[in-house]
UniProtKB/TrEMBL annotation:
Organism, as annotated: Micromonospora sediminicola
InterPro entries cross-referenced by the UniProt entry: FAD/NAD-bd_sf (IPR036188), Galactose-bd-like_sf (IPR008979), HdrA-like (IPR039650)
Highest taxon of the lineage: Bacteria
Molecular-function GO term, any one: 4 iron, 4 sulfur cluster binding
Protein name stated in the entry: FAD dependent oxidoreductase
Phylogenetic classification of the source organism: Bacteria, Bacillati, Actinomycetota, Actinomycetes, Micromonosporales
Alphabetical keyword list: 4Fe-4S, Iron, Iron-sulfur, Metal-binding, Oxidoreductase
Pfam families to which the protein is assigned, alphabetical: FAD_oxidored
């Protein structure tokens, strides 16, 4: 008879919702649920929150702004990132640099929620679940409780709840509960995905361990252990595995230090760590002892090396909808869309660092592949965020219902965190109504649209969804402002010839701009022609749906522009075009082969909010000829289709002037139902702030009574976390501001804030206020160079 282990009695707790996993996705789910009025527990198996982004793993939390201009996630994750960046001295320009102050920011957010209970250092290894026998057979199980063992306290915890969120990264709860899931790559035929392999296999995205090196004030010899991987020559770093940032006094890295198959991401976890240590220390030994620049590294030390692999992929569970590659290339505008993604289809390579015949990622060597995978923002349906056979199990983080290919763009941490907020608030709604995740997400049901409006109210960014809240009094107000600025792209005159200043017309190039007047009489472009004969360039205008559109737009107008030889400067061309007002448009300069080979279009920075440059990418299909022999780009691995699409250029805006003047930053755009750039900037922007504050005023014909106001300021939605250095405060963000109401003919101060760093501010008054006018005054922004004025994306006014 096998002896049974002795166990402590369970310490039992009951909640409305239990979230298992405290990475950014799980934390944002728990915070959203608790803020939504739900008694919530979060169970985290580490001593800090953050998962891959924590100081234990140190993967920079990237997001949608890396793939789309002005595309950053908002809501809770944006709040957390801004809070850390404003108070943390460290810059996270690469992996391996995140510190424990970041962990403290996340922990403080959890501690501040009275309805949220945290169980740290608690590993869930058991699930109590009931079998179900439904007539339609869709639900087979229901989770009753999870069992966790807490390190340090030696407690055995039994946590009961009505609903659960699995944000564990590996899908531990779902696996133990019998939820249907997948592992590895589906075949191309399974979902009709061109980037999928011809045959299914168990290859996954791999795990990475990062490092941190820094320069000290004395020599620091390095003697490696015998078991490291040997890198002794620059030739050992094959296929564009670059050692970047090594010119800095401290640096981290490297994403391509990755291990996947034949290792299993769960079963071989310990072996993966050991294999990664071999390579990380091998790279460090190369820099110290074998690099041609080894003398420069004499005073460098390896300050930190991770002990926990950062996973990219594990189990993926099956929901009522599975997001696939096709959904990444064209936004489906799901009726239950609650989040979005815009990283590229980033799949890395089979074999990882041990595959010496392929790059770490195909895009690094093949332009056709690189252009094809650059998707633009696409929405994610709530029906992908719960198990289709476990009745009360929500899914958050990288385990939700996507194919292996679609995981590529949706797996980055800020994207998963924003989706986590949606899951947490959805769970709160489901519990409030006493319904299952499936019933709540039903596109034709009564719950999904109120949830989406509630997400907007909490600053969660949704594609194509506008504020239609009938309780928002701002929607009925007349809005005026102290001033507003016109659209003005930066002037390229007199700028130095930097790497990206001149973009040659070797392909069609374009500038996307918001048009508001209903007409474009003339456009002027800033060109340089280095040839010795005059040439003609075709100028076209297209109407778009969104600023990021990859497809060709609706043709509006066309004209020919003569470019004299040796010319550098502005050239104007009449268009005399009627346009749809308040729509984005693409101004195109067509490439004309050899005739335009010597013509280039100038760029300059900064890009005005809601604008982006583009260039046309055309492929006949398949990889570049030089790569046709590579196994990683063979038909067995990928089947690149022919395409013609526009790709964003993010290094500046093209030199462009429009007649008549366009005014997309007027006061009315702060109450138009959108709080971020998508079709328009959807932003009020004033002239630079002088001695007097800039203000936005809302007037009603009859008195209204309200108790709280929500504001969304500009915190630079084009910048990723790695572009926000230590002690960062968005320069355009309202620092000092106040809210006033017209009461008995006098402006009465309701709220004042100094030193604000956040985008989303909520003013809750102690008592209702009745008024016919409200004014938001911006007294200062964080920029001290008078570049920026006041900027507000949205104002909401509510009675409740």
């Amino acid at each position: 008879m096998t002896p049974q282990p002795h166990r402590k009695d369970f310490d039992e707790h009951t909640f409305d919702l239990v979230v298992v996993g405290g990475g950014l996705a799980g934390l944002c789910a728990a915070l959203a649920a608790a803020r939504g009025g739900t008694r919530t527990a979060i169970v985290q198996d580490r001593p800090m929150f953050g998962g891959n982004s924590s100081s234990e793993v140190r993967v920079v939390p990237h997001g949608a702004s890396h793939g789309a201009a002005w595309g950053a996630e908002t809501g809770i994750v944006h709040e957390l990132i801004l809070a850390d960046r404003a108070t943390n001295h460290e810059s996270f320009f690469d992996h391996g640099l995140i510190n424990s102050l970041y962990d403290l920011t996340l922990f403080e957010a959890a501690r501040s929620e009275p309805l949220l209970t945290t169980f740290m250092n608690t590993s869930v290894r058991g699930v109590l679940a009931d079998d179900l026998a439904e007539p339609d057979g869709r639900y087979t199980r229901r989770v009753v409780a999870v069992h966790g063992s807490q390190l340090g306290s030696e407690k055995e915890l039994l946590l009961r709840a009505r609903q659960f969120v699995d944000a564990s990264g590996d899908g531990t709860v779902g696996s133990l509960a019998g939820a249907e899931h997948r592992y590895g790559r589906e075949s191309r035929a399974t979902f009709g995905e061109p980037l999928a392999p011809a045959e299914a296999d168990e290859t996954t995205l791999g795990s990475t361990i990062t490092m941190r090196a820094k320069k000290i004030d004395r020599p620091a010899p390095y003697t490696p252990p015998a078991w490291i991987a040997r890198y002794t020559s620059p030739d050992d770093f094959v296929m564009d595995r670059r050692l970047y940032h090594i010119e800095k006094e401290q640096f981290g890295g490297y994403w391509w230090l990755e291990v996947n198959n034949p290792f299993h991401q769960i079963d071989d976890y310990e072996a993966i760590r050991d294999e990664l240590h071999r390579h990380v220390l091998g790279v460090w030994n190369y820099l110290k002892n074998h690099s041609p620049e080894k003398e420069r590294f004499t005073n460098y030390v390896l300050e930190w090396i991770g002990q926990i692999p950062g996973k990219r992929e594990s189990r993926r569970f099956v929901g009522d909808v599975t997001v696939t590659e096709q959904d990444c290339h064209a936004d489906r505008r799901w009726p239950d869309g609650v989040a979005y993604a815009s990283w590229w289809i980033d799949l890395h390579i089979k074999g990882g660092i041990n595959n010496r015949e392929a790059p770490g990622e195909r895009e690094n060597i093949d332009k056709r592949y690189s252009d094809y995978i650059r998707v633009v923002p696409f929405s994610l349906p709530l029906r992908a965020f719960y198990s289709r056979n476990v009745e009360n199990l929500w899914l958050a983080g990288r385990i939700y219902s996507v194919s292996h290919i679609a995981l590529g763009p949706v797996r980055v941490q800020q994207t998963l965190a924003a989706a986590g907020q949606a899951v947490g608030l959805a769970a709160a709604h489901a519990l409030r109504h006493g319904v299952t995740p499936r019933a709540l997400a039903d596109p034709d049901g009564p719950y999904i649209q109120p949830l989406r409006q509630d997400l907007l109210r909490h600053d969660a960014r949704l594609l194509g969804v506008r504020n239609t809240d009938p309780t928002d009094l701002a929607r009925t107000a007349n809005v005026t402002a102290s001033s507003s600025v016109p659209l003005a792209l930066p002037d390229p005159i007199g700028l130095p010839d930097t790497k990206h200043r001149w973009q040659p017309l070797d392909t069609d190039r374009a500038q996307v701009v918001p048009l508001t007047t209903g007409r474009v009489d003339e456009v002027a472009v800033y060109l340089r022609h280095t040839g010795d004969t005059a040439t003609e360039v075709t100028v076209e205008l297209e109407e778009l749906q969104r600023i990021w559109d990859r497809e060709h737009g609706k043709p509006v107008a066309s004209a020919m522009l003569r470019v004299p030889p040796g010319h550098e400067g502005w050239l104007a061309v009449p268009l005399d075009a009627a346009v749809t007002p308040d729509r984005p448009h693409r101004v195109i300069l067509r490439a004309g082969g050899p005739a335009t080979a010597d013509v280039a279009w100038a760029t300059a920075t900064p890009m005005p909010v809601g604008t982006v440059a583009q260039y046309l990418c055309v492929s006949p299909g398949g990889p570049e000829d030089k790569n046709a022999h590579l196994d990683c780009l063979s038909p067995a691995e990928v089947d690149l289709p022919a395409y013609e699409l526009w790709r964003q250029f993010r290094k500046g805006a093209h030199g462009l002037r429009l007649t008549p003047e366009q005014r997309p930053y007027e006061a009315r755009y702060a109450v138009n139902g959108a709080a971020w750039p998508e079709d328009l900037p959807n932003l009020w922007a004033s002239a630079p702030i002088g001695q007097d504050p800039e203000w936005l005023r809302l007037d009603w014909p009859e008195p209204v009574t309200f108790r709280h106001v929500r504001l969304s300021f500009d915190t630079d939605l084009d910048a990723g976390c790695d572009k926000r250095p230590g002690f960062y405060r968005a320069p355009q963000c309202a620092r000092d501001w106040r809210l006033a109401a017209l009461v008995d003919g006098e402006w009465t101060e309701l709220h004042r804030e100094t030193g604000n760093i956040q985008r989303h501010r909520v003013v809750r008054l102690h008592a209702p206020v009745t008024t016919t006018a409200v004014r938001v005054e911006i007294h200062a922004v964080h920029d001290d160079t008078a570049t920026f004025g006041a900027r507000i994306f949205e104002v909401r006014v509510h009675a409740d």
